[in-house]
Write a structure and sequence with these properties.
Elements: E1 2-6, H1 10-21, E2 25-30, E3 42-44, H2 45-50, E4 60-62, E5 64-68, E6 74-78, E7 84-86, H3 89-102, E8 106-109, E9 111-117, E10 121-127, E11 130-136, E12 138-141, H4 148-152, E13 159-169, H5 172-177, E14 181-185, E15 196-200, E16 204-212, H6 219-229, E17 238-249, E18 256-257, E19 260-262, H7 278-293, H8 299-322, H9 326-335, H10 339-351, H11 358-371
Parallel strand pairs: 1-2, 1-12, 2-8, 5-14, 12-19
Antiparallel strand pairs: 3-7, 4-7, 5-6, 9-10, 10-11, 13-16, 13-17, 14-15, 15-16, 18-19
């Protein structure tokens, strides 16, 4: 069997490495090996352990999360023995691709153009300005939220948000303040459907916000309001770079189209309430690869639903509850004063369902919510 993976981000690299380790001839086609995807770059410790990510890739580890309500009320969640590892995608993605190459993947810096789908698939791409093609048995599409592969096979597309962020250089008091903490800020003036974030790295931080694509013309206003609400926490920080990227919110129902399987942002595997995508992207890549290895392509959809379906259903419901107005966002933050709710919420983030079963987390959140209505 011969497989082509289109897109060399975390989802594509994980899929390619899994296939190559199983002895399958695998081509990983990435349009720009020097590109740096705009991303907050926070990965929970459970995921880092699961994927065997070495400490040298962490820009910083944080064990506290500041959760700030629209009113300014703040809850500081202590992660205890857990942490969020902050990675710089400019270093993280190449590392994952290098691991894939070491496993036997053939890495090609080329621009995918089209596929011709039948019993086998012809993958067409441009390499060094020349038109090239390879014949494969299946394709894994990991080419992002605006996936060209997904469009060509007529795949359902997820709702897209526009995320904007700034990289700022931290010094002095700002650097000390964010030494061991990241922050999530809520408020309709910052984001009508998500939140603002501050994720510190080694000597810089990413600050950003996101909203549905229809709000694109307001993004500068949201960022200005966010920086004003930061209350001087990043005063004097030098702007290094402004970035923007599409963010797919919530997975598509069908990820398998014949012998084309969609993973990562192409499949919308971003957690609906948190916007977390790296972990779920990598896991979607692994699950898709395992389905190909078994030669049971349709099992990818079934396995994703079995493992993550309940999480995504719950978080979609919570987003509908808590993100509809600032009164509910306030309740979301104050709910985290409840130590049991805070512990279980953070456990779901850090360790997915390995800490507490999803029904237990649901019940705890519900009880805490009742107390704050």
């Amino acid at each position: 069997m011969k497989i082509a993976v289109i897109g060399g981000g975390p989802a594509g690299a994980a899929a390619a490495m899994t296939l190559a380790k199983a002895g399958i001839e695998t081509y990983l086609i990435e349009k720009d090996l020097k590109s740096e995807k705009p991303c907050g770059g926070g990965i929970p410790c459970g995921a880092l352990r699961e994927f065997d990510i070495p400490d040298r890739l962490f820009e910083r580890k944080v064990s506290k999360v500041g959760i700030i309500a629209p009113s300014g009320y703040e809850v500081l969640a202590d992660l205890g023995d857990g942490y969020v590892g902050m990675v710089d995608r400019a270093r993280f993605d190449p590392y994952l691709r290098e691991r894939a190459v070491q496993a036997g993947v053939i890495l090609i810096e080329g621009v995918f153009t089209s596929i011709e789908q039948s019993e086998k698939i012809i993958v067409n791409f441009k390499y060094g300005g020349r038109a090239e093609s390879i014949e494969v048995d299946a394709v894994i599409a990991a080419d992002g939220a605006n996936s060209t592969v997904a469009k060509q096979v007529g795949a359902e597309r997820p709702q897209l948000y526009l995320a904007v962020q700034e990289k700022v250089h931290l010094t002095g008091e700002s650097k000390r303040f964010y030494e061991d903490r990241c922050e999530i800020w809520y408020g309709a003036g910052i984001s009508p459907n998500l939140y603002g974030w501050v994720f510190p790295k080694a000597d810089f931080a990413t600050i950003g916000t996101a909203a549905p694509y229809g709000h694109g013309r307001f993004m500068d206003d949201y960022m200005a309001a966010f920086k004003k609400r930061l209350n001087g926490r990043i005063d004097g920080a030098k702007l290094l770079k402004k970035e923007a990227h599409p963010l797919p919110m919530g997975p598509i129902k069908k990820k398998v189209y014949g012998n084309v399987l969609l993973v990562g942002d192409a499949a919308g595997t971003v957690m609906p309430i948190s916007g977390e995508g790296i972990y779920y992207g990598i896991m979607s890549g692994k699950l898709a690869a395992e389905a190909l290895i078994k030669r049971d392509f349709a099992s990818y959809d079934r396995e994703w639903k079995r493992v993550y379906g309940s999480q995504f259903r719950l978080m979609t419901l919570l987003r509908q509850w808590f993100y509809k107005d600032d009164k509910w966002r306030e309740r979301l933050v104050r709910m985290h004063e409840d130590k049991d709710a805070q512990e279980r919420s953070m456990s779901l983030w850090l360790n997915k369902e390995k800490g507490y079963p999803i029904y237990s987390i649901y019940w705890t959140i519900f009880k805490s919510l009742i107390r704050h209505i």
